[in-house]
Specification:
The complex is a heterodimer of chains A (151) and B (319). Chain A has 151 residues and is an alpha/beta fold. Chain A has a single domain, classed as Cobalamin-binding domain (Rossmann fold, 3-Layer(aba) Sandwich), CATH 3.40.50. Chain A has six helices and five strands, in the order E-H-E-H-E-H-E-H-E-H-H. Chain A has a five-stranded parallel sheet, sandwiched between helices. In chain A, helix 1 links the parallel strand 1 and strand 2. In chain A, helix 2 packs across helix 3. The longest helix of chain A is centred in the middle third of the chain and has 14 residues. The radius of gyration of chain A is 15 Å and the shape is globular. Chain A starts with 15 loop residues before the first strand and ends with a helix. Chain B is of the alpha/beta class and 319 residues long. Chain B has two domains: 195 residues, P-loop containing nucleotide triphosphate hydrolases (Rossmann fold), CATH 3.40.50.300; 49 residues, no CATH class. Chain B has a seven-stranded parallel sheet with strand order 4-2-5-1-6-7-8, with helices on both faces. Classes of the chains: A alpha/beta (151), B alpha/beta (319). At the A-B interface, helix 1, strand 2 and helix 2 of A face helix 2, strand 3 and strand 4 of B.
Chain lengths: 151, 319
């Protein structure tokens, strides 16, 4: 008899992803491409548009009850805005890597990326990251979130 | 876990309310448990449906309606629905973009939902999500449907007041007299009314309403037509007034109670037929029943008689 291995997989359409663009840069092509690609991969993607404040992003995370927050920044302000978002999330009792996966993308130098990943960003995806890599990262890590472990 | 979430939600915890909506969306068994427990806390919110074709400006209109309702101190809930891809199961929910300024307002709760296979313009769990927001304490809940065409009219079973948003230049007077969507409006909005053709659209809608005089005279409500330019707030207060007038009409005429009774009936009908469908689906996998299917193919029995047999087995009655 063949033994079937059951892999803990979560239906992608039940995984909610918020793609957010904080700060003042209006370059949203990348964010839209990612949002579209994740949609095509079968995720439920919420896109909130450009020029979002960290407060607006965190409130959207709460009301939409998302599992993944993808932050796209090309303005260079990532070391100000991303820590602020992480701090606000903590204040609301949302723990990175426990309750939510925070991903970052855009122009983020390797040193900064390393620091951000220490602060709670699950992974920084720089320019040229293949979409398949981002999808695989979400597939691999979302099942580890508390919400899905319980279910 | 669910009891704790409900307790927190009833005390006004947004995160708990949001998680409950996720649960009613994802998990049918939990949805049952949640609805059973929150049902006594519902029935206070007034539900306004916003429907219309894609690009008519529903989200922008809603953004401004939230503003007007907030000026009156109302706690506002929004459920904004966008389509799920029939091919991948994924969705891109973008209605929030237009309403983001209200995100940080503690008196506003905005939730995006994907249709997840439902075809009537709403998401399958819309009614349960409305119940969560109702119990959470919203005074008014706006439900924005997907962009609709002609027959996605489920909103009429969900909303107390249906606002149909159209724009100039979408079609001629024949479109206005077709059955379906045009029949369900309690309030008509011509948005982008600064564009050419607004007068003609107004004229055509008005003419259509004149032709239906008998119907609305019997109902006691002639749907008003409000011209708006949502981006500049033009006509928005008039629209809010029209919605409230319709509400007043429903309350005073006793129509609201009738509507809510009809809604309860529809809801329970859907639940029952879903469950029967599931029972029958399960039966079809058992051997005895699947041999019936073979018999249909072999022309030993006809499909209607087979259905009689299956239903009698499932429900113990002749259906």
């Amino acid at each position: 008899m063949k033994i079937l291995r059951v892999v803990a997989m979560i239906e992608r359409s039940k995984v909610r992803v918020l793609i957010a663009k904080p700060g003042l840069d209006g370059h949203d092509r990348g964010a839209k491409v990612i949002a579209r690609a994740l949609r095509d991969a079968g995720f439920e993607v919420i896109y909130t548009g450009i020029r979002q404040t960290p407060e607006q992003i965190v409130e959207s995370v709460i009301q939409e009850d998302v599992d993944v927050l993808g932050i796209s920044i090309l303005s260079g302000a990532h070391m100000v805005l991303i820590p602020k978002i992480l701090k606000l999330l903590e204040e609301k009792g949302i723990k990175p890597n426990e309750d939510i996966l925070v991903l970052a993308g855009g122009i983020i130098p390797p040193d900064d990326a390393e620091q951000l990943e220490k602060m709670g960003v699950a992974k920084v995806f720089g320019p040229g990251s293949p979409i398949s890599e981002i999808i695989k990262f979400i597939d691999d890590n979302v099942p580890k979130l508390k919400k899905f472990r319980k279910e | 876990m669910i009891d704790e979430l409900i307790d927190r939600m009833l005390k006004g915890d947004k995160r708990a309310a949001a998680r409950l909506i996720t649960l009613v969306e994802n998990d049918e068994e939990k949805a049952r448990e949640i609805v059973k427990k929150i049902h006594p806390h519902t029935g206070n919110a007034y539900i306004v449906g916003i429907t219309g074709p894609p690009g008519a400006g529903k989200s922008t209109l809603l953004d401004k309606l939230i503003r007007v309702a907030r000026e009156e101190g109302k706690v506002v809930g929004v459920i904004a629905i966008d389509p799920t891809s029939p091919f991948t199961g994924g969705a891109l929910l973008g209605d929030r973009i237009r309403m983001q300024r209200h995100s940080t307002d503690p008196g506003v709760f905005i939730r995006s939902m994907a249709t997840r296979g439902s075809l009537g313009g709403l998401a399958k769990a819309t009614n349960d999500a409305i119940k969560v927001l109702d119990a959470y304490g919203c005074d008014v809940i706006f439900v924005e449907t997907v962009g609709v065409g002609q027959i996605e009219v489920d909103i009429v079973k969900t909303a107390d007041t249906v606002v149909l948003v159209t724009i100039p230049g979408l079609g001629d007077d024949i479109q206005a007299i077709k059955a379906g969507l045009m029949e369900i409006a309690d309030v008509f909005v011509i948005n982008k009314a600064d564009r050419e053709g607004a007068d003609a659209t107004y004229f055509e809608l008005n003419l259509m309403l004149d032709l239906e005089k008998e119907r609305w005279e019997k109902r006691g409500w002639r749907p008003p037509i409000v011209e708006t330019v949502a981006t500049t707030m033009k006509g928005m207060r008039e629209l809010w007034d029209a919605i409230n007038e319709h509400r007043k009409f429903l309350e005073e005429s006793g129509e609201l109670d009738k509507k809510r009774r009809f809604r309860a009936e529809e809801e329970v009908k859907t639940i029952v037929s879903d469950r029967v469908a599931r029972i029958v689906g399960k039966m079809l996998s058992d051997e005895e029943v699947s041999s019936l299917i073979d018999k249909i193919v072999e022309r030993e029995i006809d499909p209607y008689s087979a259905a009689d047999e299956i239903l009698e087995k499932a429900l113990g009655v002749k259906a």
